[in-house]
């Protein structure tokens, strides 16, 4: 462990922002991995109560179940049930507005991963440039015969490049994975909400006869 720390320390000052980027990316990845679990978003209890709705008398129970599970799926379903008396187009518009807010919740933190994936290789490149400048400075002062001094600058350049790629590549992979995961959950929420809308207005149609 000490050898790894000593090796990374040779990368120079740019290793500090790279280290901060790695911590930020890791924290967001862990948080999103927990938050975007299917059971965490598509709550089984809410799905179960939706499937058992037979009439308007079941709406109250469904709303109470949704209130116990604060989240994108439960919030959208609750909005549908609480406003079941609205015309279909008005309710759909209300659901779209709510859906935009809930999508933002599902995608929270992904901007951090995207930013880290973009700037980590650039920080590595900056460290490379600084390392090369150090090499040229040594050459200008001591000539090309100082192999040890030249190797130090080259080593700094290589370390920061490696670190930048080592951080940026996993951050990009994590961003793409969680973006696709959140999109899949949004589509599933839309499926259940559309199914509920059809059920609500079918119930109203029967009651209206």
Structure description:
This protein starts with a helix and ends with a helix. The chain is mainly α. The chain has helices at 2-9, 15-35, 38-41, 44-51, 59-67, 72-82, 88-106, 110-142, 147-208. It has one domain (2-208). The chain has 9 helices and no strands.
Give a brief outline of the structure.
The chain has helices at residues 2-9, 15-35, 38-41, 44-51, 59-67, 72-82, 88-106, 110-142, 147-208. It is mainly alpha-helical and 209 residues long.
Q: Name the shape in a single word.
A: rod-shaped
Rg over C-alpha atoms, rounded to the nearest angstrom? 27 Å
The largest pleated sheet is described as: none
SSE string: HHHHHHHHH
How much helix is in the residues? over 70%
How far apart the termini lie comes to 76 Å
Number of strands: 0
Low-confidence stretches: none
Going by helix content, strand content and strand pairing, the class is mainly alpha
Estimate what percentage of residues fall within beta strands. under 5%
Q: What is the averaged pLDDT score? A: 85
**H/I helix tally:** 9
* Number of self-contained structural domains: 1
List the helices and strands and how they pair.
Layout: H1 2-9, H2 15-35, H3 38-41, H4 44-51, H5 59-67, H6 72-82, H7 88-106, H8 110-142, H9 147-208
